[in-house]
Amino acid sequence: MSKTILVTGPDLAPAAQELVQTHGFETVHTPAYAASEVIADFLVKTDAVAVVSRMGRIDANVIASAPSLKVISKHGVGVDNIDLAAAAQKGIPVLKATGANAISVAEHAITLMLTTVKRILPLDSGLRAGKWEKPGFKGVELAGSTLALMGLGAIAQETGKIAKGLGLKLVGYDPFASQDCFDELGVERVDSLTALLAQADILSLHCPLNDQTRQMINEESIRLMPEGSYIVNTARGGLIDEDALLAAVQSGHLAGAGLDTFATEPPAADHPFWQEPRIVSTPHIGGVTHQANARVGCEAVRGIFQILDGEAVAKDRYANWALLVEAGHR
Question: Which stretches make up the D-isomer specific 2-hydroxyacid dehydrogenase catalytic domain (predicted)?
Answer without folding.
Answer: 6-313
